[in-house]
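Late entry, evening session. Most of the bench is empty. Finally got around to the prediction I had been postponing all week. Sequence below, unchanged from the version circulated by S.P.
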Amino acid sequence: MRPRNSVAALITAGALASATACGGSTGGTAAPAMSSDSVPASSQNMAPKVTQPIAKTSATETDPCSAVSVATVEGTASKVKETRTERSSLGNTCVWVFNNSGGNVSAGVVTANKQGVNALYIQNSRGGLTTFKPQPPILGYPAVVYANGGETEGSCNLAVGIRDDVTYTVIAQLRHDSPVYSDSCGMATKIASAAITHLKGQ
């Protein structure tokens, strides 16, 4: 079963783009691309500063599934029946597909967007997002739940700024059979937390 979206599929060359948010498994429309050159200087620092940037991310960029174990993912939701890596120049993604039509979750370090989580703040200021919810910091790192249409229960897009120019993004697309269907963002937060712990330990 191939997920309808992945981190790489939700990223354009200049910025994050979204297909779903906290709540849903249907796709929306991609947000407009936004390059660093197109962002006015006055709006370039809207997001919280990443005070403890994680420098070493190359291993996880190459092998995104190494950041979070299957056991950890299963502990956040249900049994995983398939794990695979989707490779892209925009950012490699690990995809975990759950048993019993439980949906899937994908995650990875976003390398295409050079503005980090700040890109979402800028998109939101321009009216480019339909959901924009800054979250409590995850292990001290700024986080945002976001979407550009298609918000329904069961899905969540979560971006965490691990450097000012890099995010770790989790895309949850759960179905009714998932035991955490109503808490997809809670699951995404746990996966992001596990990944950050791994990255900080490298």
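Two things to note before I forget:
The chain has one domain: 8-24+47-200.
Helices lie at 58-62, 70-76, 118-125, 184-200.
Will write this up properly tomorrow.
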